[in-house]
């Protein structure tokens, strides 16, 4: 793969946010690693080495099986796939259908796939036993994409993975999925910090309008989210910026060392909140709890995919809700100035996402998983959770080795 180095970057304390980088070749052969001043070349060999260290988490809630299966088929064979399902179990048990689909896929491919259901009652008990109640709602794990991702993160960590990437399960194009994972691996390889995040920027996000496909450059929500994330930066640096282009990137990856440090937001605010959290934590304005990351520096890469992003359209009430939650994660930040708050409220009111300030709710947060006893998590989830299923000969051996 050949891609640009970032043209410029915005520094905010120990946090570096790089401008969007473009892909020039999806496959640049096996020539030795070569760096010109402007273009990075990553050989297929290096990418494959990275895949073995990377887990890809796929959150799924009631998506069409064909889409889920297509997404999985696009993920490179050597990546561990972790599917976290929150699909309904009656009247039709969609989890079971997902399980059978994955099982069949592995029968044909013999790759490593792990599946678990978010609402497995025993999973809630595991979190209780490990003293991590933040993900619970009463006796169960809460609904939410962020919650699913956090479960996937813990499973990736327990399997000893050094990198973790996320891919939504409602993507229509397996080829795009394949590219995202390549980009994750390439981004990790060119980053110089052990604390790295790679976020995918869409080149196009096509929409069907009046019966024709229209290659829109931005999603509706991203426009607002990016604007306010950039304003959050400018309000503290004093310099206007438009560096942030991936505020709502569902497709993103992290080194485990970074992923285990972050606090996460519940539900759909999770992606913008990651940036807000990193600005708060590593921006140098507020006190940081992570001296080592402050010393090494935290690096955010934004890489533009060649493939367009085509996913399931979920309707305008979903969009309004997402917009409100995304901007709430900025609104309630300790870094958000009064004038920024005022503008956010104005935009949300105009978009019909809130009626008044009282509709704004501060996002539910799940603190860093760093102190969760990961060996105990592995042991408990294996013994207790019957929805934890794993397929593939490699992963089975690894799972057997977890002492119960
Ligand atoms: P959008 O693409 O940002 O509009 O959001 P989607 O509705 O497509 O959701 C993103 C991904 O998260 C999809 O793959 C969903 O199936 C999945 N998802 C949504 N809610 C949940 C949830 O509560 N738990 C899990 N595990 N996944 C979810
Ligand atoms: Co989607």
Automatic annotation (TrEMBL):
Its EC number is 2.4.1.217. Coiled coil: none annotated. It is an enzyme of class 2 (transferase). The keyword Calcium does not apply. GO terms for molecular function: mannosyl-3-phosphoglycerate synthase activity. The keyword Transferase applies. One of its GO terms (biological process) is mannosylglycerate biosynthetic process. Keywords: Glycosyltransferase, Transferase. Gene3D superfamilies: Spore Coat Polysaccharide Biosynthesis Protein SpsA, Chain A. One of its GO terms (cellular component) is cytoplasm. This is Mannosyl-3-phosphoglycerate synthase. It comes from Candidatus Nitrosocaldus cavascurensis. The gene is mngA.
